Protein backbone atom coordinates (compact mmCIF):
# COMPACT_ATOMS: atom_id res chain seq x y z
CA UNK A 1 0.00 0.00 0.00
CA UNK A 2 1.51 3.38 -0.94
CA UNK A 3 2.41 5.83 1.75
CA UNK A 4 0.17 8.87 1.87
CA UNK A 5 1.35 11.79 -0.22
CA UNK A 6 2.92 14.55 1.81
CA UNK A 7 0.77 17.58 2.47
CA UNK A 8 2.28 20.92 1.54
CA UNK A 9 -0.31 23.21 3.10
CA UNK A 10 -2.54 23.16 6.18
CA UNK A 11 -5.66 22.26 4.20
CA UNK A 12 -3.96 19.08 3.00
CA UNK A 13 -2.90 18.01 6.49
CA UNK A 14 -6.45 16.89 7.29
CA UNK A 15 -6.56 14.84 4.10
CA UNK A 16 -3.18 13.32 4.91
CA UNK A 17 -4.43 12.43 8.39
CA UNK A 18 -7.43 10.64 6.89
CA UNK A 19 -5.20 8.78 4.42
CA UNK A 20 -2.84 7.64 7.18
CA UNK A 21 -5.74 6.45 9.33
CA UNK A 22 -7.12 4.51 6.38
CA UNK A 23 -3.70 2.98 5.66
CA UNK A 24 -3.36 1.90 9.27
CA UNK A 25 -6.79 0.26 9.23
CA UNK A 26 -6.12 -1.52 5.92
CA UNK A 27 -2.59 -2.67 6.80
CA UNK A 28 -1.92 -6.38 6.40
CA UNK A 29 -2.04 -8.04 9.79
CA UNK A 30 -3.16 -4.75 11.34
CA UNK A 31 0.41 -3.43 11.49
CA UNK A 32 1.25 -0.37 9.41
CA UNK A 33 4.67 0.78 8.27
CA UNK A 34 6.81 2.92 10.57
CA UNK A 35 6.38 5.83 8.14
CA UNK A 36 2.58 5.66 8.41
CA UNK A 37 2.76 5.47 12.20
CA UNK A 38 5.19 8.40 12.34
CA UNK A 39 3.11 10.58 10.06
CA UNK A 40 -0.09 9.70 11.88
CA UNK A 41 1.44 10.44 15.28
CA UNK A 42 2.81 13.79 14.09
CA UNK A 43 -0.53 14.71 12.51
CA UNK A 44 -2.40 13.93 15.72
CA UNK A 45 -0.02 16.31 17.51
CA UNK A 46 -0.62 18.94 14.85
CA UNK A 47 -4.37 18.71 15.41
CA UNK A 48 -3.85 18.71 19.20
CA UNK A 49 -5.60 15.34 19.32
CA UNK A 50 -3.66 14.07 22.30
CA UNK A 51 -6.02 11.19 23.08
CA UNK A 52 -5.64 9.65 19.63
CA UNK A 53 -1.88 10.30 19.75
CA UNK A 54 -1.59 8.53 23.08
CA UNK A 55 -3.67 5.52 21.98
CA UNK A 56 -1.73 5.30 18.72
CA UNK A 57 1.53 5.25 20.66
CA UNK A 58 0.20 2.42 22.83
CA UNK A 59 -0.89 0.30 19.86
CA UNK A 60 2.31 0.71 17.83
CA UNK A 61 4.22 -2.54 18.30
CA UNK A 62 7.18 -2.05 20.69
CA UNK A 63 9.56 -3.48 18.08
CA UNK A 64 8.60 -0.70 15.64
CA UNK A 65 8.82 1.98 18.35
CA UNK A 66 12.30 0.91 19.45
CA UNK A 67 13.61 0.55 15.89
CA UNK A 68 12.51 4.04 14.84
CA UNK A 69 14.25 6.90 16.70
CA UNK A 70 12.29 9.52 14.75
CA UNK A 71 9.04 8.08 16.09
CA UNK A 72 10.45 8.34 19.62
CA UNK A 73 11.34 11.98 18.87
CA UNK A 74 7.79 12.69 17.73
CA UNK A 75 6.45 11.09 20.90
CA UNK A 76 8.85 13.20 22.99
CA UNK A 77 7.23 16.29 21.46
CA UNK A 78 3.83 14.77 22.26
CA UNK A 79 4.81 14.29 25.89
CA UNK A 80 5.89 17.93 26.11
CA UNK A 81 2.55 19.01 24.61
CA UNK A 82 0.71 16.81 27.12
CA UNK A 83 2.67 18.42 29.97
CA UNK A 84 2.09 21.91 28.51
CA UNK A 85 5.86 22.45 28.54
CA UNK A 86 6.04 25.11 25.83
CA UNK A 87 9.82 25.66 25.97
CA UNK A 88 10.26 21.87 25.92
CA UNK A 89 8.04 21.54 22.85
CA UNK A 90 10.16 23.99 20.86
CA UNK A 91 13.42 22.46 22.12
CA UNK A 92 12.31 18.93 21.23
CA UNK A 93 11.25 19.97 17.74
CA UNK A 94 14.50 21.85 17.13
CA UNK A 95 16.71 19.09 18.56
CA UNK A 96 15.83 16.48 16.00
CA UNK A 97 16.73 16.14 12.32
CA UNK A 98 13.33 15.16 10.91
CA UNK A 99 12.88 13.16 7.71
CA UNK A 100 11.47 14.98 4.70
CA UNK A 101 8.06 13.35 5.28
CA UNK A 102 7.86 14.49 8.90
CA UNK A 103 9.63 17.87 8.81
CA UNK A 104 6.73 19.89 7.32
CA UNK A 105 4.35 18.43 9.90
CA UNK A 106 6.70 19.17 12.80
CA UNK A 107 7.24 22.73 11.53
CA UNK A 108 3.46 23.10 11.44
CA UNK A 109 3.27 21.69 15.00
CA UNK A 110 5.77 24.36 16.09
CA UNK A 111 3.81 27.14 14.36
CA UNK A 112 0.43 25.98 15.71
CA UNK A 113 1.92 25.69 19.20
CA UNK A 114 3.27 29.22 18.91
CA UNK A 115 -0.17 30.52 17.88
CA UNK A 116 -1.77 28.70 20.81
CA UNK A 117 0.82 30.22 23.14
CA UNK A 118 0.05 33.73 21.86
CA UNK A 119 -3.63 33.08 22.50
CA UNK A 120 -3.03 31.71 25.99
CA UNK A 121 -0.81 34.63 26.95
CA UNK A 122 -3.34 37.17 25.69
CA UNK A 123 -6.12 35.51 27.71
CA UNK A 124 -4.22 34.67 30.89
CA UNK A 125 -1.84 37.57 31.49
CA UNK A 126 -2.21 41.28 32.00
CA UNK A 127 1.57 41.48 32.18
CA UNK A 128 4.36 38.96 31.68
CA UNK A 129 8.12 39.19 31.73
CA UNK A 130 9.65 39.28 28.29
CA UNK A 131 11.77 36.24 29.17
CA UNK A 132 8.72 34.19 30.14
CA UNK A 133 6.83 35.38 27.08
CA UNK A 134 9.73 34.48 24.79
CA UNK A 135 9.89 30.99 26.34
CA UNK A 136 6.14 30.51 25.77
CA UNK A 137 6.42 31.37 22.08
CA UNK A 138 9.81 29.77 21.44
CA UNK A 139 11.62 32.88 20.26
CA UNK A 140 14.40 35.09 21.57
CA UNK A 141 13.24 37.99 23.74
CA UNK A 142 13.92 40.49 20.95
CA UNK A 143 12.11 38.41 18.32
CA UNK A 144 9.14 37.74 20.60
CA UNK A 145 8.62 41.39 21.47
CA UNK A 146 9.18 42.51 17.87
CA UNK A 147 6.69 39.94 16.56
CA UNK A 148 4.18 40.85 19.24
CA UNK A 149 4.41 44.55 18.48
CA UNK A 150 4.28 44.05 14.72
CA UNK A 151 1.31 41.70 14.61
CA UNK A 152 -0.46 42.40 17.90
CA UNK A 153 -0.90 38.64 18.35
CA UNK A 154 -0.61 39.00 22.10
CA UNK A 155 -3.75 41.00 22.64
CA UNK A 156 -6.48 42.98 21.01
CA UNK A 157 -4.79 46.11 22.33
CA UNK A 158 -1.33 47.43 21.45
CA UNK A 159 1.56 46.12 23.53
CA UNK A 160 4.42 48.00 25.04
CA UNK A 161 7.95 46.90 25.78
CA UNK A 162 9.08 48.56 28.99
CA UNK A 163 12.87 48.55 29.26
CA UNK A 164 12.98 51.03 32.13
CA UNK A 165 12.23 48.32 34.71
CA UNK A 166 14.80 45.93 36.10
CA UNK A 167 12.72 43.10 34.66
CA UNK A 168 11.44 43.69 31.16
CA UNK A 169 7.67 43.46 30.95
CA UNK A 170 5.33 42.94 28.02
CA UNK A 171 1.89 44.19 28.92
CA UNK A 172 -1.25 45.66 27.36
CA UNK A 173 -1.24 49.46 27.27
TrEMBL record:
Pfam annotation, one family: CSN8_PSD8_EIF3K
Subcellular location: Cytoplasm; Nucleus
PCI domain: residues covered: 8-173
InterPro entries (UniProt xref): COP9_CSN8 (IPR033205), CSN8_PSD8_EIF3K (IPR033464), PCI_dom (IPR000717)
Highest taxon, organism lineage: Eukaryota
PROSITE patterns for this protein: PCI (PS50250)
A Gene Ontology cellular-component term: cytoplasm
Keywords per UniProt: Cytoplasm, Nucleus, Signalosome
GO biological process: COP9 signalosome assembly; protein deneddylation
Family classification: Belongs to the CSN8 family.
The protein's name in its UniProt record: COP9 signalosome complex subunit 8
Organism whose genome encodes this protein: Leptobrachium leishanense
Native organism taxonomy: Eukaryota, Metazoa, Chordata, Craniata, Vertebrata
